[in-house]
Amino acid sequence: MTNTLFDEVRLGSLLLPNRLVMAPMSRTRAGADGVPQPIMATYYRQRATAGLIIAEATTPNQVGQTYPDIPGIHRAAQVDGWRRVTAAAGGRMFLQLQHGGRIGHPDNSGLHPVAPSPIPLPGTIFTRDGHQPTVTPREMTTGEIRATIADFAAAAGNAIDAGFAGVEVHAGNGYLLHQFLAQNTNHRTDSYGGPVANRVRFVVEVVRAVAGAIGAERVGVRVSPGNTANGIEEGDTGAIYRTLLGELAGDGLAYLHVAFADPEDGFFRAEWPGVLIANPALPWPGPLPEDGGRRAGERLLAAGADLVSLGRAFLANPDLVARLRAGAPLNPLRGREFMYTGGESGYTDYPVLDTVAV
User: Fold this and answer.
1) Phi and psi angles of residue 297, each rounded to the nearest 5 degrees, phi first
2) What is each CA distance from 82 to 56, 79, 160, 168, 216, in whole angstroms?
3) What is the pLDDT of residues 43-80, one digit of tens each?
């Protein structure tokens, strides 16, 4: 029998009331110091009927900060801020850990960005003073690689202290871990560059260090195979992910989260023995389908996914689970100018249904 989006499912020690996952989405509502603000507790509490919430990309160290007002998890005040969020939203939350690598700027982090190789992000980057030209990152030394791995592990421990059930290591969308995987951003000649087996090494070491800190059953990994966001050109996509999943498949991780999954290509169901979260490939930057991605998600379940993550549909519909269950119309998503501008507008002020069966 085919699973439905509204079935219960177990994820490690968590019993999820449905198979709908709120995907991690940056909303830049933290303070300038990376401390989550009270409005973020309201935002996540409103969406707590999701089977699982994966909270937005959060930096494990200062140099990993991407844009202004991105939350961190490497200082005590940041941990305290996140603790207020998890207390408000309940226990079914993972926190995504993301290091920007070359996607950073001294005006945002106060530090010069680092990356596998000194290859700049094309174009400009958003800072507090508007868009500015990107800077050429400094190539990470092996000592800095080891320190960054330790920072990820420490951040994972902080996330558990803050009340999260686990963490998701972000290895996609052109950020630091993805930069190590891709040919065009990793020109290293040491054991972290060159052949695919070397280029996956950093991701594997980060994931295993995080698992060693908090337990593999509390660790998920997100990948976005073939994604060209942020100037990424992987070059040998199939070999990258066969090698990476071959390394991690036996580690007992909580889940693999595949972004922009296509049910026609199997999205690694054959290669991944554990829980698989699939994120459907919906039009971007075009409008969402009227059902918010429900039919696409159902196709992914039929193809073997265990859970389905949706992003923009959860932004506009705090009560998305109830709306989908009832077949009720969805709120339209407001313009992108409301996504990152701060405050309640386009964040915590979307309406909910007055009455609906849940």
Assistant:
1) -65, -40
2) 11, 5, 10, 15, 22
3) 999 999 999 999 999 999 999 999 999 999 999 999 99
Q: How many domains does the chain have?
A: 1
Instruction: Decide if 347 is catalytic.
Output: no
Question: What is the residue range of 222's domain?
Answer: 9-338
> For residues 215 and 207, what is the distance between their CA atoms, to the nearest angstrom?
11
The pLDDT confidence band at residue 358, using thresholds 50, 70 and 90, is very low
Could you tell me which residues come within 8 angstroms of residue 32 by beta carbon, excluding any fewer than 6 positions away?
68, 69
Can you read off the two tokens belonging to residue 90?
Answer: 């309940």
Q: Identify whether the C-beta of residue 219 lies closer than 8 Å to the C-beta of residue 166.
A: yes
Mean pLDDT of 126-152: 97
Report yes or no on 210 lying in a domain. Answer: yes
Residue 1: predicted pLDDT: 60
Which residues have CB under 8 Å from 189's CB, separation 6+?
none
CA distance 137 to 312: 31
Task: For residue 59, give the DSSP letter.
Answer: B
Instruction: Say if strands 307-310 and 20-22 run parallel, antiparallel, or are unpaired.
Output: parallel
Alpha-carbon distances, residue 153 vs 46, 73, 146, 192 (angstroms): 30, 11, 11, 19
- Asked whether residue 354 is domain-assigned, the answer is no
Indicate which residue of 43, 67, 175, 350 is catalytic: 175
Q: How many Cβ atoms from other residues are within 10 Å of residue 216's Cβ?
A: 18
Residue 260 to residues 50, 257, 280, Cα–Cα distance (Å): 19, 10, 5
The CA distance from 54 to 92, in Å, is: 9
Backbone angles phi, psi at 83, to 5 degrees: -60, -35
Cβ–Cβ < 8 Å for 68, 37:
no
